[in-house]
Amino acid sequence: MGNTDGQARFVQLALCRILDANLDRAREGLRTIEEWCRFGLDNASLTDECKHLRQELAHWHTPALRAARDTPGDAGTALTHPDEAQRSSVQAVLQANLCRVEEALRVLEEYGKVYDPEMGGAFKQMRYRVYVLESKLTANQRQQRLERSRLYLVTAPTETLFATVEAALQGGLKLVQYRDKTADDEVRLSNAQKLCQLCRRYDALFIVNDRVDLAIAVDADGVHLGQQDLPIALARQLLGAQRLIGRSTHCPDDLHRAIQEGADYIGVGPVYETPTKAGRPAAGFDYVRYAAAHATVPWFAIGGIDTNNLHEVRAAKVDRVAIVRAIMHAEQPMVTTQYFLAQLGNGRSEE
Ligand SMILES: Cc1ncc(COP(=O)(O)OP(=O)(O)O)c(N)n1
Ligand SMILES: Cc1ncsc1CCOP(=O)(O)O
Ligand SMILES: [Mg+2]
Q1: What is the structure's pLDDT at 69?
Q2: How far apart (Å, rounded) are the C-alpha atoms in residues 349 and 284?
Q3: Which DSSP symbol is given to 270?
Q4: Of 147, 103, 105, nearest to 123 (Cα)?
């Protein structure tokens, strides 16, 4: 009898320790996410949602559960995974903490059912709220990062592809498109994978030109589609709600259609005729000014823009530009990137 009592007490104590540890874990993870929503994204509603979730967790974190804590006797405190010692980016921090919160809530849900019949349902409901938070955070982040980007590097297949892109990233670039119209798929896949990883290291968005399949394969942030490429609706079905879709536009009709079809951003051009897109006539400055007056999504002027004519482009109310040769063929891509960013008044947004 004494033994059974002792066992029951042991189980109860273990339960309390599990609940206490996971309440702590979930609260800490949420606090980490909340700080980014507040200071990184300036997003009041996401910050509020984190705070509410933390308060609800605090409500369940009773003195009885806290009293069960025995940190020196906890066999798990010394165990860490090498990934925890290093995070490659803010994204990685957010991802790790979302995971930590979701796992902790699942543990609370399962063991909570044994401790208090109301706990299971309450933590399940919170877990679903964290999934929603995760979707909003991911979607929102990409949109916000896109909005902050004034300079868009569209790559050309050069011998120094990776070194040039990395130099531009070191110069502060935050938006890269992989464009290669001729390479074999095997090469494109490998290049896209490497560029995607490179962009992640510098907290830059990575977009694949033309190819929805490659964008999905490398887990890119989105795809850029021209007028002759896949319809936006189909790309959206394949890519989901959270990835970015860009569309090239050459005239007012294209612009309105792209926005109405759900493009997250548009390319506007070619501003000038350019050998990079041989055979496509310039759309001209009238269309550029039209875009400045009517575009309701971020738009990037593209085509023949370089450091010499940037002032003329800026005079047509252009705030965002997409560049191929002027950076890919620059002698000093990092310095050229810094010049573009400074002229585009990037300030805090590209930090
Ligand atoms: C930002 C941006 N704008 C326009 C284009 C051109 O796309 P598209 O018309 O499909 O031509 P290709 O680049 O595929 O030759 C772009 N890539 N990026
Ligand atoms: C892909 C594309 N679409 C319209 S213009 C253009 C190429 C722009 O290249 P560059 O900056 O070298 O003129
Ligand atoms: Mg295309």
Answers
A1: 82
A2: 29
A3: -
A4: 105
Q: Where are the domains of the chain?
A: 2-72+82-144, 149-350
Contact (Cβ atoms closer than 8 angstroms) between residue 338 and residue 170:
no
Whether this model's pTM surpasses 0.90: no
Mutate to test the pocket of ligand 2, among 299, 324, 327, 329 (most ligand atoms within 8 A of CB): 324
349 pLDDT exceeds 60? no
Q: Ligand 2 — pocket residues by CB below 6 A?
A: 154, 248, 269-270, 274, 276-277, 302-305, 323-326
Q: pLDDT tens digits, residue range 290-309?
A: 999 999 999 999 999 999 99
Q: Can you tell me the distance from the alpha carbon of 300 to that of 313, in angstroms, rounded to the nearest whole number?
A: 11
Write down the ipTM of this complex. Answer: 0.99
Question: How would you classify residue 55: left for phi > 0, otherwise alpha for psi between -120 and 50, otherwise beta?
Answer: alpha
136-158: per-residue pLDDT in tens?
Answer: 887 777 888 899 999 999 999 99
41: left (phi over 0), alpha (psi -120 to 50) or beta: alpha
The CATH code of the domain at 149-350 is: 3.20.20.70
Reported in sequence order, the residue ranges of 72-163 that DSSP labels E, i.e. its strands, are: 151-154
Q: Cβ contacts of residue 195 below 8 Å, gap of 6+?
A: 155, 161, 162, 165, 176, 178, 206
Structure letter (DSSP) for residue 241: S
Mutate which of 155, 179, 265, 302 for ligand 2? The one with the most ligand atoms within 8 Å of its CB, which is 302
Residues contacting 110, CB < 8 A, separation 6+: 120
Q: Please check if 242 is assigned to a binding site.
A: no
SS3 content of the chain, % helix, strand, coil (to 5): 60, 10, 30
Residues near 327 by beta carbon (within 8 Å), at least 6 away in sequence: 153, 164, 168, 333, 336, 337, 340
DSSP bridge pairs for 244: 222
Which whole-number Å values give the CA distances from 344 to 264, 292, 325, in the listed order?
21, 15, 18
Give start and end residues of each alpha helix (H) in 171-231. Answer: 185-201, 212-217
